[in-house]
Design a protein that fits this description.
- With 133 residues, this protein is mostly beta strands.
- The chain has one domain.
- Helix content is 9%, strand content 57%.
- Strands 1, 2, 3, 4, 5, 6, 7, 8, 9, 10 and 11 form an 11-stranded mixed beta sheet that branches.
- A hairpin with a 6-residue loop joins strand 1 and strand 2.
- The radius of gyration is 14 Å and the shape is globular.
């Protein structure tokens, strides 16, 4: 595990997609996952997704916390919080009870701020099964 600082306390990083890596499909993970490459498809987790400076994501995202410094296009659900950090370029729809937009972040689209429950148990069970493979 890698320790990741920058979102408050250090968090455990259990996955990392480096710059130059491309992924097409459905990504599921536990703990914290960082993307500095290119992802197209769908991203699901109860935990934290970090899109780094060089990260480029074209996907529907449904995670606990979504922290963006790179480029994201799609429908983004942050069940706890969405953070658009300086340098972020986000186009699409954001849904979260908490939204942080730093000076220097770009956002174009729609936003709905509403309390969200954790994803349904059936979806979480799929996460557990995917994590075992």
């Amino acid at each position: 595990m890698i320790k990741l600082k920058g979102l408050g306390a250090a968090e455990e990083l259990n996955g990392f997609m480096d710059e130059g890596t491309e992924f097409l499909g459905e990504l599921r993970f536990r703990d914290t996952y960082r993307i500095d490459g290119h992802v197209r498809g769908r991203i699901l987790s109860e935990n934290t997704l970090v899109v780094g400076e060089t990260g480029r994501v074209e996907a529907d995202i449904d995670c606990g916390v979504v922290s963006i410094r790179g480029s994201v296009q799609g429908h983004v659900i942050g069940r706890q919080r969405i953070e658009l950090l300086a340098g972020a370029r986000v186009t699409g729809t954001l849904v979260s009870p908490k939204l942080v937009i730093e000076d220097g972040a770009f956002f174009q689209g729609d936003c709905a701020m509403a309390p969200l429950a954790p994803r349904p148990a059936a979806a979480r069970a799929g996460d557990a099964a995917a994590a075992r493979h």
